[in-house]
């Protein structure tokens, strides 16, 4: 009787701990092989066959297809350089320059990866659409209401993420620091 | 008391095993992975253009809305598959994923270095079965080895501004993915 109760107890602990840890790891996302530059994080190995088991399980659950390393690399940001999380009711400014790449795109998604509806049907910019200064740097205003220049509408949603994808870029698995890849800065502007 | 602690310890150790096993097993049991999501609208060994993602509908999460995309759900069990695509004016890439979503190969228009990207997709056995001399004459042929008999070929053509999307979708529509027993 003791044996039955004891093993039942052990199996219960194992199931709760094991599945709980799996659920936690997959809902929080994983941090293996992450390259973080400023507010931006990329997982270059996710575009290769060396993708770790946690990321494999994660993408199997979300259904996304990672950008292949021969294609490009995707950097994701959830907060500005000071760590303030993006809020669609505030203004955030993405400014500076991007690492070398033939093309890049900046896209705004909700945390689940859906595009955010807005009156302009503008979900992002490509490197060719951006208005730049004469030195090549740019400002992209991510804001709920119209701004002059490069305005990316948030439609006032509470949470969103920005994804900067560099296509045909030397940035990749070998990149470690911001010195090799100068990512644009993100700062908070007006906030009601 | 000691007995209870021992059972607890055993449970914790077993929990670690359960955790690792469930993480490793998850890709094989996931019913909402990219392959399963795309299966209803993609025939086998033919390109199908995906609708442009919108806030209300997207085939997959985190799709880049600046691209026209077509997917070929391939099966090279019986014969290699030939993938051909014209390239867009801006940027074109072809990525290969296994049945479980691992990106094992990707190439862009510049790396392919020609006006039409042409790739032969096959298993390792099919590649080994290629006649030796043919491998030499076809030195400039791009051969991609698929680690799994099934998977996804994803063609992406960039539309650098919204007005160029019809053009990009036209290029995607001209791409080809079909079994090629002769190769």
Which structural class do the helices and strands of chain B define? alpha+beta
Shape of chain B: globular
Number of domains of chain B: 2
The CATH topology of the largest domain in chain B comes to Immunoglobulin-like
Helicity range of the residues of chain A?
10-25%
Query: What is the CATH superfamily label of the largest domain in chain A?
Result: Domain of unknown function DUF1214, C-terminal domain
CATH architecture designation of the largest domain in chain B: Sandwich
Task: Give the spatial strand order of the biggest sheet of chain B.
Answer: 1-2-8-4-5
Measured distance between first and last alpha carbons of chain A: 65 Å
> In the CATH scheme, what's the topology name of the largest domain in chain A?
Jelly Rolls
- The oligomerization state is heterodimer
In angstroms, what separates the terminal alpha carbons of chain B?
A: 70 Å
* Adjacency order of strands in the biggest sheet of chain A: 1-2-3-9-5-6
- Main sheet specs of chain B: 5 strands, antiparallel
Largest interface (C-beta under 8 Å)? A-B, 63 and 62 residues
As for the number of domains of chain A, it is: 2
What percentage of amino acids of chain B are in beta strands?
25-35%
Query: Which range does the strand content of chain A fall in?
Result: 25-35%
Q: What order do the helices and strands of chain A follow?
A: HEEHEEEEEEEE
Could you explain the architecture of this structure?
The complex is a heterodimer of chains A (192) and B (183). With 192 residues, chain A is α+β, with helices and mostly antiparallel strands. Chain A folds into two domains: 1-30; 31-188, Domain of unknown function DUF1214, C-terminal domain (Jelly Rolls, Sandwich), CATH 2.60.120. In chain A, 19% of the residues lie in helices and 25% in strands. Chain A has two helices and ten strands; from the N terminus they run αββαββββββββ. Chain A has helices at 2-28, 53-62; strands spanning 35-37, 40-42, 72-77, 92-96, 103-109, 124-126, 138-143, 150-153, 161-167, 185-188. Chain B has six helices and nine strands, in the order H-H-E-E-E-E-E-H-E-H-H-E-E-H-E. With 183 residues, chain B is an alpha+beta fold. In chain B, the strands form two sheets. Chain B has a five-stranded antiparallel β-sheet. Helix content of chain B is 31%, strand content 30%. At the A-B interface, helix 1, helix 2, strand 5 and strand 9 of A face helix 1, helix 2, strand 4, strand 5 and strand 8 of B.
């Amino acid at each position: 009787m003791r044996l039955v109760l004891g093993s039942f107890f052990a199996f219960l602990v194992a199931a709760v701990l094991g599945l709980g840890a799996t659920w936690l790891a997959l809902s929080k996302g994983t941090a293996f092989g992450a390259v973080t530059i400023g507010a931006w994080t990329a997982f270059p190995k996710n575009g290769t066959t060396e993708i770790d088991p946690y990321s494999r399980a994660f993408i199997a659950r979300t259904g996304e297809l990672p950008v292949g390393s021969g294609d490009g690399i995707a950097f994701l940001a959830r907060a500005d350089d000071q760590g303030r999380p993006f809020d669609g009711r505030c203004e955030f400014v993405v400014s500076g320059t991007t690492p070398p790449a033939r093309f890049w795109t900046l896209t705004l998604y909700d945390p689940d990866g859906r595009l955010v509806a807005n009156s302009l049907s503008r979900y992002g910019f490509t490197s060719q659409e951006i208005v730049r200064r004469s030195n090549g740097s740019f400002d992209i205003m991510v804001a709920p209401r119209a701004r002059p220049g490069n305005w990316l509408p948030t439609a006032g949603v509470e949470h969103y993420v920005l994804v900067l994808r560099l296509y045909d870029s030397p940035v990749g698995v070998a990149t470690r620091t911001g010195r090799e890849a100068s990512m644009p800065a993100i700062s908070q502007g007006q906030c009601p | 008391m000691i007995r209870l602690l021992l059972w607890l310890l055993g449970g914790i150790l077993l929990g670690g095993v359960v955790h690792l096993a469930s993480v490793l097993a998850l890709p094989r049991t996931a019913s909402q992975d990219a392959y399963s999501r795309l299966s209803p609208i993609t025939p086998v060994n033919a390109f199908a253009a995906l609708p442009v993602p919108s806030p209300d509908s997207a085939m997959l999460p985190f799709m880049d809305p600046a691209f026209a995309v077509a997917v070929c759900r391939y099966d090279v069990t019986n014969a290699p598959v030939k993938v051909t695509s014209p390239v867009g004016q801006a940027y074109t890439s072809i990525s290969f994923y296994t049945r479980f979503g691992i990106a094992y190969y990707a190439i862009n228009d510049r790396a392919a270095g020609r006006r039409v990207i042409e790739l032969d997709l096959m298993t390792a056995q099919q590649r080994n079965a290629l006649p030796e001399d043919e491998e030499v004459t076809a030195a400039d042929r791009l051969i991609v080895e698929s680690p799994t008999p099934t998977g996804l070929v994803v063609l992406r053509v960039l539309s650098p501004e919204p007005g160029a999307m019809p053009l990009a979708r036209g290029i995607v529509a001209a791409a080809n993915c079909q079994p090629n027993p002769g190769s």
